[in-house]
Amino acid sequence: MTAQEYRHIVRIVGNDIPGDKKILLGLTQIRGIGYNFANAILDSLKIDSNTNIGYLSDSQVQSIEKIISDPLSASFPTWFVNRRKDVETGKDMHLITSDIEFTVRNDVERERLTGSWRGYRHMFGLKVRGQRTRTTGRKGGAVGVAKGGKVMPAKGGAGAPPAAGAAAAEGEAPAAAEVKEAPKEEKKEAAPAEKKE
Predict the structure, then answer these.
(1) Which of 34, 145, 146, 163 is the most buried (most CB within 10 A)?
(2) pLDDT > 90 fraction of the chain, expressed in percent and rounded
(3) pLDDT higher for 157 or 90?
(4) Which residues does 139 contact at the CB level (< 8 Å), separation at least 6?
(5) Residue 116 in contact with residue 128, Cβ under 8 Å?
């Protein structure tokens, strides 16, 4: 191939891929196409996976796009596609790019509307696939004992003097604590002085 046939950017299924990438790794930049899927495409088309993607001809790009859009027509097995037995159509298909996000969003919304158990789990942001949730998946508000800092008594609670509760409400708790600590320090200083005499 000559240098004139080299393209710096190759557009495949709406994705711009740099021409200096190897074909195998360049195809994996398309969302929905992994390493094994890209390797299977190149094997079925008899394209060398070690060449740069910028050297692909227009006919080769079109044949790659045709297989990506319908891999079952190129005698790919059904277990190789990422969407088998679609709920609405019942067909096996392979989703790519933004179709993946759109389909997943529709599936979650359908489960919510039907009121299934999975739908409820999705609604409350919990794990859906049967994982253990005793120690993992914790997010949101803290539950349990908070570490650090002293817990102030509740307003009007048993054993809480009204002055301390009022000071805590106004944010004067540190000043009240300093007043209580000051006499203790004076007593400590005064006691050694009496012993010396």
Answers:
(1) 34
(2) 46
(3) 90
(4) 125
(5) no
Task: Confirm if 96 and 31 have CB atoms less than 8 A apart.
Answer: yes
One-letter amino acid identity for 63? Answer: S
Task: Report the pLDDT averaged over residues 100-122.
Answer: 93
* Phi, psi for residue 107 in degrees, rounded to 5: -65, -45
Sorted by where each starts, the structural domains of the chain and their CATH numbers stand as 3-80 (1.10.8.50), 165-191 (no CATH)
Phi, then psi, of 123 in degrees rounded to 5: -60, -40
**Burial per residue of 163-175, b for 16 or more beta-carbon CB atoms within 10 angstroms, e otherwise:** eebebbeeeeeee
- What is the rounded distance in angstroms from the CA atom of residue 142 to the CA atom of residue 103? 34
Give the helix/strand (H/E) hosting 118: helix 117-123
Task: Please indicate whether residue 161 or residue 27 has the higher confidence score (pLDDT).
Answer: 27
Could you please report the per-residue DSSP string of 15-79?
EEEETTSBHHHHHTTSTT--HHHHHHHHHHHT--TTSBGGG--HHHHHHHHHHHH-GGGGT--GG
Which tokens in the block code for residue 139? 């997010």
Q: Tens of pLDDT along 16-75?
A: 999 999 999 999 999 999 999 999 999 999 999 889 999 999 999 999 999 999 899 888
